[in-house]
Amino acid sequence: MIRRKVFRQPFRSRFPLMSSRVKASVVFTSMLLTIMLVVGAVIGRSEEKTDGAYRPLSVYTEVLARIKSDYVEEPDVKKVTRGALQGLVEYLDPMSSYLSAEQYSEYKERIGFQDKGRGWSTGMVAHKRGMYTAVLSVLPGSPADKAGIKPGDLIEAIDDKGTRLMPPALLYARLSGEPGSSVRVLIRSSKDYEDPVEHRLERAKIQLPAVRSEMLDGDLGLIDVSVFDDNTAAETAAAVKKLAKAGAKGLILDLRENSIGDTKLGYKLAELFVSGKELGTLEGQRFEKQTFTAGPKSAITDLPLSILIDRPASGAAEVAAAALLDNHRADVIGETTYGLAAHQETIELEDGGALILSVAKFHRPDGKSLHDDGLEPNYPLEPAQLRLYRNPDQREEGYEDPFLKKAREVLNGTAEAPAAKAA
Questions:
Q1: Is the pLDDT of residue 26 over 60?
Q2: DSSP string for residues in 148-178
Q3: Bridge-based pairing state of the strands 354-363 and 342-348
Q4: Residues 6 or more apart whose Cβ sits within 8 Å of residue 257
Q5: What CATH architecture is 211-344+359-412?
Q6: Best CA proximity match to 138, nearest among 282, 256, 272
């Protein structure tokens, strides 16, 4: 059986602050004020009153003046302003970032070594929500896996730098680095949330195949796709043909914890199972709309298909599963994904800093944005099933993976029909 790691949902309220409450409150206040600027600007445009868009600026100026004159100690205005700009951008979505000139310089040096799942890697993918950074996925056999790091663990520091106020783009860059180099990460386990432990991870050569497959009992074939790269679609096609030749009467496509790769590559995978259908779109307010359509004869099989997803499944995994679900080509089993499906661009600023900005979102064939809401399966698992799946020590003898169990039931026609959604 293909070995699979388990994602644990990070707990959000039991962790000590990593900086003083007072200083954090100053940064937080500035972040709130910048959010007011955005709201004010939007309202001002909609009402076509140019003065209304700038009204919150006077409030921000007044509060900043009060901080400078009345705060308990002389504040670092540059640091407060940086926090305000960072908060302004991160309020938009969990992928956008503001980088100062110094941060952007570091980002450019490191981003060329970004983990891609195969090649030199720590094998750990992180995701930031608000001020918390969680491990999204861990590749089997990777340095992170060997260190005992689990999906759902919290990353509190990278090379002695706290992650709470670290821009997402810089966080991802700092986890990247030259082949053979190492990074120190301070990890708080999602199992017990005891004191965090520091791990030194060396970026090692990972030979993990993007696609693994095997026959299951009951004439079903399992295809596990761990990462998306330029070879994933071809490797999946080879796996489909091998399983069909072995007598598979149905296929299970496992996309759990798949969070690595170019989002558009998800469409290459989807069109192996459907021909001539719209697979999704990429849209933004100033971004020329792109429509992705399967080739007229792209499908290589008509075998019944079930897809497994979990919360960490993101980007390419989300667009592939959504394309096949909305075209009634596959059933989707599991839980709603995070919703990390956006196209980003880097906008350089005059002071040497940069915006890493989401300029377009991937949409499902039914028109819904994946980046906003994630993908909801049509066969969702129960909370109790997910809890046992993520806590092996609570399982009883004879336990069966609930994702695979439900997929078998769906393909064998013994699963209860999914509940109809309210209009």
A1: no
A2: T--TT-EEEEETTEESTTS-HHHHHHHH--S
A3: antiparallel
A4: 4, 5, 7, 136, 137, 138, 151, 226, 310, 312, 313
A5: Alpha-Beta Complex (3.90)
A6: 256
| CA 231/CA 209 separation, integer angstroms | 10
Tell me what percent of the residues of the chain surpass a pLDDT of 70. 83
pTM over 0.85: no
Give the model's confidence band at 85: pLDDT under 50 very low, under 70 low, under 90 confident, else very high: confident
pLDDT in tens, 234-268: 999 999 999 999 999 999 999 999 998 899 999 99
Mean of per-residue pLDDT scores for the chain: 85
Neighbours of 387 (CB within 10 A): 12
Strand 379-380 versus strand 331-334 pairing type: parallel
CATH of 106-206, one of 3.40.50.970, 3.40.50.150, 2.30.42.10, 2.30.30.40: 2.30.42.10
- Residue for token pair 């999602």: 190
Please give the single-letter amino acid code of residue 388: L
Question: 15 falls in which pLDDT band (50, 70, 90)?
Answer: very low
Pick from 182, 154, 176, 163: nearest CA to 97: 163
Instruction: Give me the residue spans of the domains in the chain.
Output: 21-91, 106-206, 211-344+359-412
pLDDT at 421 over 90: no
The single residue listed with the structure tokens 């399992």 is 222
